[in-house]
Design brief:
With 474 residues, this protein is α+β, with helices and mostly antiparallel strands. The protein has 2 domains: 11-250, Glutamine Phosphoribosylpyrophosphate, subunit 1, domain 1, CATH 3.60.20; 271-327 and 337-444, Rossmann fold (3-Layer(aba) Sandwich), CATH 3.40.50.2020. Helix content is 30%, strand content 27%. The longest helix is centred in the middle third of the chain and has 15 residues, at 271-285. Mean pLDDT is 92; it is low at 1-10. Bound molecules: adenosine monophosphate (AMP). Residues 258, 296, 299, 361-370, 402-404 line the site of adenosine monophosphate. The site of adenosine monophosphate has 16 residues, from helix 14.
Length: 474
């Protein structure tokens, strides 16, 4: 029953942690601000001070939630933060993170990026043993597993808990006097370690989903938390420990295709480098007899730059994005065609009139937005629209933390590229091959997960029906 109530809440999140900074909550706030693209539904920060854990979390955007008085109410030199995206109807504050509890191991808070694929079974079992859950998310399970552990220390209990988890998790924990972070043994989701100089302070360490968070706070990127590694920072300094036996790596390639910011280093590789390379290889595989290359902003920009430089065609920003759309716009009661997409994008007729256009985007999911954009470009006067996608067809849902719909809604899962071309009304359509995607991220050692393009999941998904069911509930 619990399993049925479980929703896939931990897709598309950003996490930060900081230890040893006199203004830890402000640093966590700035880190989250830089990670806002990873989740816009809710955000939260916990700090530790004088044996207490202080928490503030709310629905909405980071900059709106953390006002000066709120940050003042979060004292201490250690903090963790989380920003979360969820398409679920159930976006209640109860599921916002970090989660904080007082248990037999002490006071502890946790924030999570990823998706624990066996959370349903663990929850059922914990419920049988008397655990009472406050929220419907999978992250809470970790705290209950820690409370049930017979290990006496916090790190011992954490190790115990982690060993029972399956799936994707980059986790940040806050205890009374330390920060602990951990990554699943496959390393699905990123987590980077940075260092900061703070006058009069030793050992100021920061952790974040993406390094763009470090740039804003002036921290230096050191390295990734290794898959299967736990890093603990306390008064004694930083210690690294492998908590799980080595497993084949399965780093999410979609971070490089779409999700991460191009100014970040993810899995030790510059995202901008991967994205431009995706565009270059796309131009080689799918050249077009055209006049200009136009990106779908912002997702197609870096790949379009790569495509233009490889093909020699001019790059033009002929679709302009309004960056200021909030949640509270008023939709006209009279139907306006394609209102949603017009709200976000507007074509530059002057550039498109009479032109043969290569339109570059990162992916087609359901196909509905792409169709609206192709129509928009054509209505603005383009003579031909050649759609180029900088990854292979998305045919399978993700169970490791990216919000993709089930197969029934994924257009490429049940349609050929030619059928998709007709649906999106493009003159031609080209998807990047899997081999080129692998090349663009320099995956010589087979360290990435491509499940959304291949349907080959790198872990056993024993409860796949349930995972699909949870997704369909949304
Ligand atoms: P559609 O044509 O309706 O499938 O929408 C495609 C658009 O959705 C592209 O511009 C993508 O950048 C964007 N997109 C792809 N994957 C995701 C995702 N997981 N979350 C949000 N947007 C996405």
């Amino acid at each position: 029953m619990w399993a049925k109530m479980l929703d896939k809440f931990h897709d598309e999140c950003g996490v930060v942690a900081i230890y040893g900074h006199p203004e830890a909550s402000k640093m966590a706030y700035l880190g989250l601000y830089a990670l806002q693209h990873r989740g816009q539904e809710s955000a939260g920060i916990c700090t530790a001070h004088n044996g207490q854990i202080f928490t503030h979390k709310s629905m909405g955007h980071v900059a709106d939630i953390f006002t000066s008085p709120v940050l003042k109410s979060l004292p201490g030199e250690a903090a963790i933060g989380h920003t979360r995206y969820s398409t679920a109807g159930d976006t209640v504050l109860l599921n916002a993170q970090p989660f904080s509890v007082v248990c037999n191991k002490g006071k502890i808070a946790v924030a999570h990026n990823g998706n624990i694929t066996n959370a349903g079974e663990l929850r059922t079992e914990l419920g049988r043993r008397g655990s009472i859950f406050q929220a419907s998310s999978d992250t809470e399970v970790i705290l209950h597993l820690m409370a049930h552990s017979s290990e006496r220390t916090m790190t011992g209990a954490l190790r115990d808990a982690l060993l029972q988890l399956e799936g994707a998790f980059s986790l940040v924990f806050l205890a009374e006097n330390r920060v602990i972070v951990a990554r699943d043994p496959h390393g699905f989701r990123p987590l980077a370690v940075g260092e900061m100089e703070v006058s009069g302070h030793r050992n100021c360490y920061v952790f974040a989903s993406e390094t763009c968070a470090f740039d804003l706070i002036g921290a230096v990127y050191l390295h990734e938390v290794e898959p299967g590694e736990m890093v603990s920072v306390g008064p004694e300094g930083l210690t690294r420990e492998r908590w799980a036996p080595e497993q084949p790596r399965a780093q999410c390639v979609f971070e490089h295709v779409y999700f991460a910011r191009p100014d970040s280093i993810v899995f030790g590789r510059a995202v901008a480098e991967s994205r431009e390379q995706l565009g270059r290889l796309l131009a080689r595989e799918w050249p077009a007899d055209a006049d200009l290359v136009v990106p779908v902003p912002d997702s197609g920009v870096a790949a379009a730059i790569g495509y233009a430089s490889e093909s020699g065609l001019p790059y033009r920003q002929a679709l302009i994005r309004n960056h200021y759309i909030g949640r509270t716009f008023i939709e006209p009661s009279q139907a306006i065609r394609d209102f949603g997409v017009k709200l976000k994008l507007n074509p530059v007729r002057h550039l498109l009139q009479g032109k043969r256009v290569v339109l570059v985007d990162d992916s087609i999911v359901r196909g509905t937005t792409s169709r609206k954009i192709v129509r928009m470009v054509r209505q603005a006067g383009a003579r031909e629209v050649h759609l180029r996608i900088s990854c292979p067809p998305t045919i399978s849902p993700c169970f490791y933390g990216v919000d993709t719909p089930n197969r029934g809604e994924l257009i490429a899962s049940n349609h050929t590229p030619e059928e998709i071309r007709r649906f999106v009304e493009a003159d031609s359509l080209g998807y990047l091959s899997l081999a080129s995607l692998r090349r663009a991220v320099a995956d010589e050692r087979h360290e990435y997960c491509y499940a959304c393009y291949t349907g080959d999941y790198p872990t056993e998904l024993v409860n796949i029906e349930e995972l699909i069911g949870a997704r369909e509930k949304r």
